[in-house]
Design brief:
Number of domains: 2
Distance between the termini: 116 Å
Helix content: 40-55%
CATH topology of the largest domain: Immunoglobulin-like
Number of helices: 8
Radius of gyration: 43 Å
CATH class of the largest domain: Mainly Beta
Structural class: alpha+beta
Number of strands: 9
Oligomer: single chain
CATH superfamily of the largest domain: Immunoglobulins
Length: 259
């Protein structure tokens, strides 16, 4: 009987054990990958690998992930015949670059790709937030809010103050003292917070005007009293910021005294 080379090769492959035949059809696929594109020291990194099995029986074993040549805890797997299973683990990294790889150990059959090529990731530490930095942010926010409130309320308050002064002049029969009708502080107030000196000068002016109105004997007493009240209200409305500051200071002072 003449035996050909093809027949001899066929007999040889049939005689091989299934494990040997499956060695080229099982192992890791496409190396390792991660659950994110950027990495922080404050967040665990999830590491993945995939094990495929194109043999005719279930493949079991473990995958060991390594970070900078340091092995993490093994992850067991069981891959049915002609299937693929994803395995994963997680770890928290220090800041810097890290080399990550994976390998199969304790497999129930020989595998073709027992290890995955290393991948390098860069982990960054978050910018530390100091108490001083937080205070600066809060301070800037409060300042911006205060400026917005002042620029919004001040023109309205100025208009109301002018209306009260006009009512005062009308009440006095158009003969209000010169310092009342001049409104010398209007441009100083504008839409921004008036200075202490401006407020002090205006308060002195209010005092002088009130004395002048009180001395107008040709005007009925009730009109003089009402005119003085209107002048005081105009002052309080125009310098509402300082009035509010005084009220807050008094409240805080009382709170401190009670403690």
């Amino acid at each position: 009987m003449k035996v050909s080379i093809g027949m001899l090769l066929g007999i040889f492959f049939l005689a091989l054990p299934p494990v040997a035949l499956g060695a080229e059809n099982a192992g890791l696929v496409n190396g390792v990958w991660f659950d994110a594109q950027s990495f922080s020291t404050t967040q665990p990194v999830q590491i993945y690998a995939a094990v495929h099995n194109e043999t005719g029986s279930t493949l079991t074993g473990q995958v060991i992930f390594s970070v900078d040549a340091h092995d993490l805890a093994p992850v067991s797997f069981s891959v049915p015949a002609y299937n693929l299973v994803r395995v994963s683990t997680s770890d928290t990294f220090a800041a810097g670059q890290h080399s990550v790889t994976a390998r199969i150990v304790n497999a129930s059959a020989d595998v073709e790709t027992a290890s995955a090529p290393a991948r390098t990731i860069t982990v960054v530490a978050p910018t530390p937030t100091t108490l001083a930095g937080q205070a600066a942010v809060v301070g800037a926010t409060v300042a911006n809010t205060g400026t917005t409130v002042i620029n919004t309320v001040s023109p309205v308050a100025e208009g109301i103050a002018n209306t009260l002064q006009n009512a005062q002049t009308s009440l006095l029969g158009g003969s209000a003292p010169k310092s009342v009708s001049a409104k010398t502080n209007t441009t100083a107030v504008g839409s921004s917070a008036p200075s202490v000196s401006v407020a002090a000068n205006s308060l002195q002016n209010l005092f002088d005007v009130s004395l002048a109105i009180a001395g107008k004997t040709d005007v009925p007493l009730w009109k003089r009293i009402l005119a003085i009240v209107l002048g005081v209200l105009a002052f309080l409305v125009r310098y509402w910021m300082w009035v509010l500051a005084v009220i807050v200071a008094l409240v805080l002072w009382r709170v401190v005294r009670r403690r």
